[in-house]
């Protein structure tokens, strides 16, 4: 069943990456969303690994109810954590980057659609801005992954996490400004009145 799902995802991915879209921004949003979703799906393979405490318990011949964990740097909290999501408030939680990345397939095409509609006559600009947004989304997703793997709760970022997030945002802001300058409407030609 897992092999069938993987082959289906590979086929869909190949189709999304190779199909030309009439709306360049939407095509870019779909491609980035799909790629980020697939990359972040790999986070699920980290979760089932036994924690050091679980390994010690197994080696000691004791039975264990659970193998693997969502939380890094703290035990999984039964019923505790952030309201609604139950993401760990004591350690890093791998569900955060998984959640953020999985929703790239919805948010990036939606943003691309809005950009494409707002910039109807400037589709290349809309596609370029969507690409920058895709890189920003990937950077923030990777920042949440690094934060979780460092055992840090999502609502308690340290200086390294802030530096990563701000670096991503600054790079994307600079890229956006360069893109807007590059795609600026050409200035109207000046008519010379000299010699008239």
General description of the model:
Helices cover 60% and strands 2% of the residues. A two-stranded antiparallel ribbon has the order 1-2. The protein starts with a helix and ends in a 14-residue tail after the last helix. The longest helix has 27 residues, at 123-149. It is built from seven helices and two strands; from the N terminus they run αααββαααα.
SS elements, strand count: 2
Quaternary structure state of the chains depicted = single chain
Coarse structural class: mainly alpha
Approximate helicity band: 55-70%
How many separate helices? 7
Give the neighbour order of strands across the main sheet: 1-2
Please compute the radius of gyration using only Cα atoms.
23 Å
Order of helices and strands: HHHEEHHHH
Q: Which residues sit in consecutive blocks of at least 5 with pLDDT less than 50?
A: none
| Integer average pLDDT | 83
- The dominant shape is elongated
Gap between N and C termini: 80 Å
Let me know the largest β-sheet: 2 strands, antiparallel
Beta content comes to under 5%
Would you kindly provide a brief summary of this structure?
The chain is an all-alpha fold.
